[in-house]
Every structure is written in C-alpha cells, then in structure tokens.
Design a protein that fits this description.
Helix content is 41%, strand content 14%. It contains 16 helices and 18 strands. Strands 4-14-13-12-9-5-8 form a 7-stranded mixed sheet, sandwiched between helices. Strands 1-2-3-17 form a 4-stranded mixed sheet. The structure holds pyridoxal-5'-phosphate.
C-alpha cells in the first residue's frame, strides 16, 4: 500500500454522496448548528460533514430521520452490551415509572445498596462510590490517590483515554516527534502538563524506569487492562503484573480504568482475569445498562477519604444525579442479567468478535488492501467483542500499543478514522474510531453484512 495516500478527492466524493443519501439529517444538522457548537454535544458523535440524526434504536440497529436502518457497532460508546434498549432493562424502567418511582433523585434507597453489593461481589472491591460519568470517576480516583499518598504526580499511558477531566486530557493525541503525546486541550492549569508522566503501554521496562525515576513523587499509575480508544489492545500479563509489583514497591496507587473493560469480558472486572488487583478501579459504560452510572471501587482505606471516617478530605460527593434511582434500576437489572447469564453472554460475544475481526480482514484482503484488526483477546483475556481495523503499511508492524496504531507514518490513520466511517455510512453501517463493539443482539448475518460493506469501502479506496 503506498504511503501517504491523499484522500481529499475521495473525502469530497463521499461527503457529496452522503448528503444525497441523508438529506433530512443534513437539514437537521444545519438547524442544530444554529444552537450547538458543531451541531451537538459530543465531538465524537459529530461526524464530518454531519451525523445521522436518530429517531429510534433497537438491538443492533438504529433508525435515522431519513428512514435508514443502520447497523450499529458503536453501541452507545460500547456501553450497550445487550444492544440498544434491551427489553429486560426498558421493561423494568417502564414498570418503575408507572408505579411512581424513577426521577426522585436526591434521596438514597435500597437499589443503590444492591448495585454496590453486585459491584463489590463481582470485582472484589471493598467499597464503591457512585458518580455519573467515567471522566468523573477517573478524576476522583486520581484525587483520592493524590490525597492518600500525599504525592502530586500522575502517570498514564500515551494514548490512554480516561475522559475529559484535567489529568486525563494530557497525553491523548498523537503528534510525530520525540515526544509523541501532547496535551489535548488548552485552558488547563499550566502545572498540569508537568504533573502527568506519560509512559508506553505494554512496556514493562519503561514503566520500571519511570516509576523508579519519579519514585516518591508519584501518586498513581492509571491504566486500562484492555486499551480502549487508544487502539483496542489487551495488556500483557507481564505488564500488569509488573505494574502491581512496582506500585507496591514504590508506594504508588494502582488504578485500573475499567470504564470500557468492566463487565465487557466477564461479569465483573477484567483485572481478575489477570489475577492482578488494583488499589482502585473505575467503572462506567456497561454497568449503567444504558443510563449514566459510573463508580470508583476499591480499597476501603483509600475510598474512606471521601467520607466521614476519612474526614471528608477528598471532595467527591458524586453529583446531583449520582445514584439516580432510574439509573440504579437500569444498572441493577443489567448487572443481574449479566451475572445470571454470563455463561451465554460472554462466549457469544467472544464468538461474534472473532467472526467480525475475520470478516473485516478478509473483506479488505479480497480487494488487495492489507488490514489487521486489533481487539483480539490474548493468553489471559478469553475472547473479545471489540474490533477495529488497522491499516499498517508494513504487514509485520507490531500493533501492541497506541504508538503503533496512531502514528500516521506506520498506519493509514486517515483511512481508519474518517474514510472508513463515512464510506460505511453510505451502506448504513455505523462505526466510530474505525471500529466498535458487538452486542448480544448482533447476528452472524450482521457480520456478513459488515464484511460486504467493507469490501465496497475497499473498492472505493482502490478506485
Ligand atoms: C477507558 C475510559 N475511561 C474513561 C472514559 C470517560 O467516560 P465518560 O465518557 O463516561 O466520561 C472513557 C470514555 O470513553 C473511557 O473509554
């Protein structure tokens, strides 16, 4: 494959065809832009030139204003593991609303206890505190770690996405050069960039060097056991075990960000599969059953800092909508379902994930374009329902960390992130970051349809 490709003509052609394909969404986008920046409220959803505007969603499919039935692999930012609007959750919510229960936020109830009990039991955490987004969970986990250790530095992986919170916004975007990861956002406190140490995923030696170098200034190391937005790759067992040992040795709080991986690979945390226990873990996405639920879970002696016993040292109240009754009901219903049906849900997801990765790779290969999916399981993670095609220029290029897949000198990032998405939408298939997650409602036929759509994308690219 030649590098770098110039996609400006293809991008224009796709945008024009897409405007003809979805005139109602185009018109709604113009209206949206009169009141919202870029026509919406989450940058990732605001596809250029415009996103499909939804009217309904069920299972693996969403319907847009133009009447298209779109096969969706984004599935609510990978939250909707049972597909969109699963009856098991929506019927529980409908019944609750009918009986006068659901939006009375501001109190506490038995449901919160039940959800906390499920989380503790399934993840081995001693205590839980709820909030409403993954970003708030990771931010509060970092605050707890800094307060607990009395240290200021935070270490994270280059390309690791922990949500739009101050520490999480450093080291997110790839930039060529000696320091490949730069600050994501302006407007942050100046000291922050110096407080965040960037290390490389799946590199135990670099981790060792960094932890040794920053030693008694390092409060925490936050890492995803399965890299999400950075490129869908599992941590090696060696890496996570090294992280645990080094954090113990140097008194650093180990935080697993399980916002994507929690309850995605098993009915619990992913750390347990590695037999590595973090000090704190963050959960969101899947656990909410489609509603905004997030949690910090872990050691009681750290979490107590946000409560009376710890002197309320860390201000982590959770927010007005934390432990929201309707959200807690959705969470309890979904988590109970996952625990009770784990033997069906996770093998099925793993099977669909493997088929999807094969189908994408085969479709591109059939058209003479080399694609290799990330999202594979490894020797520890048994089965994965995540898939994203990477287009490395060299077939032998290792794809083990975000540096490998986000460097435009190594992989065709433009094809993955933009061309693929827009071209697939013309076939009524929706992906974000080039890929997505499977839900239990996807079928083999859906995977075949995705494969056929990928072939048409490949033909456009070749042309
Ligand atoms: C690993 C990880 N952590 C944290 C977040 C932030 O979650 P939220 O978007 O709910 O704030 C995300 C979101 O994609 C994520 O993938």
């Amino acid at each position: 494959m030649p590098k770098p490709r110039n996609y400006s003509k293809l991008t224009n052609d796709l945008a024009e065809e897409y405007a003809r394909h979805s005139p109602k969404s185009a018109a709604l986008n113009e209206r949206a832009r009169q009141t919202m920046i870029d026509g919406g409220s989450h940058s990732l959803r605001l596809i250029n030139p415009f996103p499909p505007r939804l009217v309904s969603a069920h299972g693996a499919y969403v319907q847009d204003a133009d009447g298209h039935t779109i096969l969706d692999f984004w599935q609510g930012h990978y939250a909707n593991i049972l597909g969109h609007n699963p009856t098991v959750v929506t019927s529980a919510l409908a019944h609750a609303f009918e009986s006068g229960f659901g939006t009375q936020t501001g109190f506490t109830d038995q449901l919160q206890i039940e959800v906390a009990e499920i989380l503790c039991k399934q993840t081995g955490a001693e205590r839980v505190r709820f909030t409403t987004s993954g970003a708030l969970a990771t931010m509060n986990a970092i605050m707890l770690a800094r307060a607990f250790t009395g240290r200021e530095l935070v270490m994270k992986v280059g390309g690791g996405w922990h949500g739009a919170q101050p520490w999480g916004l450093i080291g997110v975007n790839f930039a060529s050069g000696a320091e490949p990861w730069r600050a994501e956002s302006q407007g942050l406190p100046g000291a922050l960039a110096r407080e965040v140490i960037i290390t490389r995923y799946n590199h135990p030696e670099m981790l060792h060097e960094h932890i040794k170098e920053y030693d008694n200034r390092l409060a925490c190391f936050i890492v995803e056991p399965f890299m999400g937005a950075g490129g869908f790759m599992p941590a090696s067992g060696e890496y996570l075990r090294a992280a645990r040992e080094l954090c113990d040795q140097y008194g650093v709080v180990l935080v697993f960000d399980e916002v994507i991986s929690g309850f995605r690979f098993r009915a619990g945390d992913l750390g347990s599969m590695y037999n590595v226990k973090p000090d704190l873990a963050t959960f969101a996405k899947v656990i909410g059953g489609g509603m905004p639920v997030a949690a910090v879970a872990g050691r009681a002696d750290i979490l107590k800092l946000c409560g009376r016993e710890g002197g309320n040292t860390v201000r982590f109240p959770g927010g007005t909508y934390s432990g929201h009754p309707a959200s807690m009901l959705a969470a309890k219903t979904l988590l109970t379902h996952l625990v009770e049906h784990a033997n069906e849900v996770y093998p099925r997801l793993a099977q669909l994930g493997a088929l999807t990765r094969q189908a994408i790779e085969a479709a591109f290969a059939a058209e003479g374009i080399f694609a290799r999916c990330t999202g594979h399981p490894n020797e520890t993670v048994r089965g994965s329902s995540l898939a994203v095609p990477q287009f490395p220029y060299d077939a032998k290029q290792p794809l083990l960390d975000p540096d490998d897949v986000n460097d435009p000198a190594l992989c065709d990032v433009e094809l993955r992130d933009h061309i693929f998405q827009l071209a697939l939408l013309l076939d009524d298939v929706h992906v974000v970051h080039g890929g997505g997650s499977l839900s239990t409602t996807h079928t083999e036929a859906d995977v075949v349809r995705l494969g056929e759509a990928c072939r048409r994308v490949a033909r456009r690219v070749k042309a």
